[in-house]
Amino acid sequence: MQNNQKPQISAAQLVDAKIMECRCGGRIFDSKLVIKQISAIMSPTSNPLDVPIQVLVCSNCGKISPMSDPENLLPADIKSEKI
Ligand SMILES: [Zn+2]
User: Fold this and answer.
1) How much distance in Å is there from the Cα of 32 to the middle of ligand 1?
2) Is the entire prediction scored with pTM above 0.90?
3) Ligand 1: distance of its center to the CA of 28 in Å?
4) For 25-56, what is each residue's pLDDT tens digit?
């Protein structure tokens, strides 16, 4: 389980923090959705189940940042390499 409580961050801490970059050098990310479908056989409802997954996509190269997929739910071909 992930801890959803965000630690308290001060502005001064953010000024000194580095900006995370994509492997391509991109620094701006868009929030987007990938939708995975759980097959009827695996689904708890016995019907195919669409599950949206929120991801961060590099505005420059269009690949998903591995930062936004810590549980490795998505295939490598749509993600940029780990930085
Ligand atoms: Zn990129």
Assistant:
1) 14
2) no
3) 9
4) 999 999 999 999 999 999 999 999 999 999 99
